[in-house]
């Protein structure tokens, strides 16, 4: 009995080390709703919990060796929250006081993407953007290296730029995306690129689109825009 418990512990530790991610910082102001169940990994009993709290509970059960730091606030509405986000990006690395290795944007609105882009340009922080269109049949991932590749303000991804519905209020309790699989595929591509980037193998596309109806995955690189609206992006380009 003891032996098998120890073996399970060993296997858990091996699983934790397999991807080499030591610490996850998670920012989200939202609460879990029953309408999320079709497409996110939350469970019905977690309804009304903050999303970061629910996610931490689930992930801690899967891998107790990863350090989690969660913040339940909106990065776009309160200046202090935005500043706190910036300070955690620059000091919240695995080694305290060091920056994180990579920031990920997995949000559903323009303002939050812009806030992440602004923070990362100011800090020179490498980050990856991801998203799925409102009709859930296309998505994208994009790698941003300040000064070297296009930032979000240089050229927002086409699916986001064309997404005119994004700013209109969503109906209470109604989830617009009905293809959880498209989100799953884009999330998988994002994580694949995160591992390639952090572990330095293979090619990480600067921009990768996923068209679910055609099984089409076009990629491209985007140079930064010398006339970008973000001053920090222009300064990073000069450096
Ligand atoms: Zn830019």
Protein described:
Keywords: ATP-binding, Metal-binding, Nucleotide-binding, Ubl conjugation pathway, Zinc. Mean pLDDT is 87; it is low at 164-169. The strands form two sheets. Strands 3-4-5-6-7 form a five-stranded mixed β-sheet, with helices on both faces. It has a two-stranded parallel ribbon with strand order 1-2. It has helices at residues 2-19, 51-62, 79-91, 110-123, 158-161, 180-199, 231-238; strands at residues 23-27, 67-71, 103-105, 127-132, 138-144, 207-211, 219-220. It is of the alpha/beta class and 239 residues long.
Brief rundown of the structure:
It contains seven helices and seven strands; from the N terminus they run αβαβαβαββααββα. The protein is of the alpha/beta class and about 240 residues long. The structure holds zinc ion.
Terminal Cα span: 60 Å
Number of strands: 7
Radius of gyration: 19 Å
- Helix amount: 25-40%
Structural class of the secondary structure composition? alpha/beta
The largest sheet is: 5 strands, mixed
Determine the number of helices (DSSP H or I, runs of at least 4 residues).
Answer: 7
What proportion strand?
5-15%
List the quaternary state of the chains.
single chain
| Ligands and ions found | zinc ion
Low-confidence stretches: 164-169
Order of the strands making up the biggest sheet: 3-4-5-6-7
